[in-house]
Design brief:
The protein has 348 residues and is of the alpha+beta class. The chain contains nine helices and 20 strands. It folds into two domains: 10-234, Rossmann fold; 242-347, RNA polymerase II/Efflux pump adaptor protein, barrel-sandwich hybrid domain (OB fold (Dihydrolipoamide Acetyltransferase, E2P)), CATH 2.40.50. The strands form five sheets. It has a six-stranded mixed sheet with strand order 6-7-8-3-9-10, with helices on both faces. Strands 15-19-16-17-18 form a five-stranded antiparallel sheet, with no helix packed on it. Bound molecules: adenosine-5'-triphosphate.
């Protein structure tokens, strides 16, 4: 079993990156703790890859500083940082076997041949490729190739592993398996992982914290549950799954008072409620909030049913309700109520 490595603490302070007149990163500051699994999440073009390349040392920031375990490494070359990297298109050496690919960085580091042999075998076992060591990459599936890339990046015990959309070319099932694999490797090795994705569920499933980017700006850094349940902005709320947005006027929605919970944020022009927290009622709910609406569509999804409603003021609502809880004979066109507990409303 490989030994636990010394995990890196990585700090970014006011990192700015411009390409000509375009600003790709706007004063990004965050600290990645030792052994943390941080995911950089955001839409295409939001600056995730640029930020990762700056952390790795492959791009220089236009302004700002980087720290590795408290030491300023802003101008240190990539090799001096000693991070492992796994990219979507990070091709394995095609003419080398799996063993030779994994051994390569160890040879570059001039480790002893006994150590190279032992670590290569350890890594092959660790990523579940026992018996495949003699094969060339062309003889492996896409998932197996990414396992080799992971093994190669982890072989020399980097203090941090940086992964940029490593599974985006894999099909959904394989992607799920590789996510489990990466989580297990992170637990076993204990090194710092920084993972880039634009897939919300991947980010929520994998990370200890998620850093959300939009237009080069860091919007929020928090645990998965917190970014989902307590989004810092309307952008974060809408980016992380479905949310109903109710425009408010003087604390009211379509003439009825709306009550929000103590943690809902600062009263503002909109209230957000996740579809899974809205319930269907056939009359005005006795407790919590309620708004009258017409049922426009029902989509049966097995254990859940997705309901599309529209309020009198033409605001669309989505409800995800357990199919078993639906009233008999419910049909489109029905006049219903959508209710939710006040603490589930968020000011956005
Ligand atoms: P994706 O998920 O599509 O990879 P991303 O969030 O990783 O997106 P980046 O690749 O970091 O985004 O790009 C951020 C912005 O910076 C984009 O608008 C991109 O076009 C721009 N950009 C990145 N690299 C360069 C470059 N070398 N020259 C000019 N513009 C660049």
């Amino acid at each position: 079993m490989p030994q636990k490595t010394t995990a890196a603490e990585i700090g970014a302070q006011d990192i700015r990156k411009t390409f000509g007149t375009f600003t790709a990163l706007k004063d990004v500051s965050l600290t990645v703790g030792r052994g943390e699994f941080l995911t950089l999440l955001g839409p295409s073009g939001s600056g995730k890859t640029t930020f990762l390349m700056i952390l790795a040392g492959f791009e220089a920031p236009s302004a700002g500083k980087l720290f590795l375990n408290g030491t300023d490494v802003t101008h240190a070359p990539a090799e001096a940082r000693g991070f492992g990297m796994v990219f979507q298109g990070y091709a394995l050496f095609p003419h080398m076997t799996v063993e030779q690919n994994i051994a390569f960085p160890l040879k570059v580091q001039r480790r002893s041949s006994a150590e190279i042999k032992r670590r290569t075998q350890d890594m092959i076992e660790m990523v579940g490729l026992g018996g495949h060591g003699h094969k060339r990459p062309s003889g492996l599936s896409g998932g197996q190739q990414q396992r080799v890339a992971l093994a190669r990046a982890l072989a020399y015990e980097p203090s941090a592993l940086l992964l940029d959309e490593p599974f985006s070319a894999l099909d959904k099932n394989l992607r799920g398996q590789m996510q489990d694999e990466v989580r297990r490797l992170h637990r076993e090795i204990g090194t710092t992982f920084i993972f880039v994705t634009h897939d919300q569920s991947e980010a929520l499933a994998l990370s200890s914290r998620v850093a959300i980017f939009d237009h080069g700006q860091l919007q929020q850094v928090a645990a998965p549950r917190d970014v989902y349940e307590r989004p810092a902005s309307r952008f974060v709320a809408e980016f992380l799954g479905d949310i109903n947005i109710l425009p408010l006027s003087n604390g009211q929605f379509e003439g009825g008072a709306i009550v929000a919970g103590p943690d809902a944020g600062t009263p503002s022009g909109f209230l957000g409620v996740r579809p899974e927290y809205m319930q269907l009622h056939q009359s005005k709910p006795a407790a919590g909030n309620g708004i009258a609406a017409r049922l426009e569509d029902l989509t049966y999804l097995g254990s859940e049913t997705r309901l599309s409603l529209r309020t009198k003021g033409d605001v669309p609502l989505i409800l995800h309700v357990p199919t078993a809880s639906l009233p008999e004979g419910l049909a489109t066109g029905a006049e219903v109520w959508a209710g939710w507990p006040s603490e589930r409303g968020l000011y956005l």
